[in-house]
Amino acid sequence: MKSCKICSASTTLIQNHKTKKLYYRCKECDYVFMDEQFFIDEARERLHYDKHDNNFACHGYVKMFERLIDEFVPLAEIEDALDFGCGEGEVLPVLLERKGVRCDRYDLFYLPKKVYRDKRYDLIVSTEVIEHLESPLEVLQELSLHLRDGAYVLLMTRFHPQDDEKFLEWFYIRDVTHIGFFSLKTFEYLASRLSLELVKHNSKNTILFKKI
C-alpha cells in the first residue's frame, strides 16, 4: 500500500470498480489521492482547461468570487495578493483590484512566469487548484515562503466525503484532472506543518489560514 503524499502515513485502498481507478485514503491526515497510473498527460490537461468558460461573461462564476471576497478576504489587511492558478479569465484578480488590492497572477498554463519570486504578499489565494497538484505539500511549502508576517492563505476545493462509497459516487472525482482530495482534517494537518492558523472555513469548499 502506498504512503500518504502529505504526511507519509499508511493508507487504505479505495477501488472504483466501474472506472478501475485506484485511490488511497490516509489513515492519519485523511488525504485521498489517485494512483499515478491514471494521471493524464499535460497536453490533455491543457485541452481540458481550454474548454472552461471561466470569464466575466459567466455571471455565476463572477458571483462566486464576489461572495468569496465578501465572506473570506479581510480587505482592510490586504495590500498585495497573489492568485496562484488564476486561469485564463483572471476574474478573481480583477475583482480584487477593484477593491484596491494589487494582485499578481500565476497560472501553469496561461501565465507561467513565476512573478512571485522575490516577493511577499498579504494574501495568497488559490481556487480550484490544489486538487490538481501531485505534490500539494511541496507547493504550499513554496508558497508559504512568499507570505508576509500575519498574511493569509485562502484555498478553495471541495471537501471530500468521509464514507468510501459516497466518495466513489462523488461528482468531483469525475473530473479527469482531479487527483488529490482534502478534508478539514487534512487542512488542519497542513496548517500544523506550515505554521498556519486556521481562521475560518465553510465546511464545504473554502478555508482561510493566517501565518503565525
Describe the structure concisely:
The protein is of the alpha/beta class. The protein has 6 helices and 10 strands, in the order E-E-E-H-H-E-H-E-E-H-E-H-E-H-E-E. It has a domain at 41-158 and 184-211: Vaccinia Virus protein VP39 (Rossmann fold, 3-Layer(aba) Sandwich).
Report the mean per-residue pLDDT as an integer. Answer: 97
User: The CATH topology of the domain at 41-158 and 184-211, please?
Assistant: Rossmann fold
Q: Distance between termini?
A: 35 Å
Q: In one word, what is the shape? A: globular
Uncertain runs are none
Describe the protein in words.
- By secondary structure, the chain is of the alpha/beta class.
- It has a domain at 41-158 and 184-211: Vaccinia Virus protein VP39 (Rossmann fold), CATH 3.40.50.150.
- It has six helices and ten strands; from the N terminus they run βββααβαββαβαβαββ.
- The strands form two sheets. The protein has a six-stranded mixed sheet with strand order 5-4-6-7-10-9, sandwiched between helices. A four-stranded antiparallel sheet has the order 1-2-3-8, with no helix packed on it.
- α3 links the parallel β4 and β5.
- The longest helix is centred in the first third of the chain and has 14 residues, at 59-72.
- The chain is globular.
- The protein starts with 10 loop residues before the first strand and ends with a strand.
- The relative contact order is 0.16.
- This is 2-polyprenyl-3-methyl-5-hydroxy-6-metoxy-1, 4-benzoquinol methylase.
- It comes from Sulfurimonas hongkongensis.
- It holds the Pfam family Methyltransf_23.
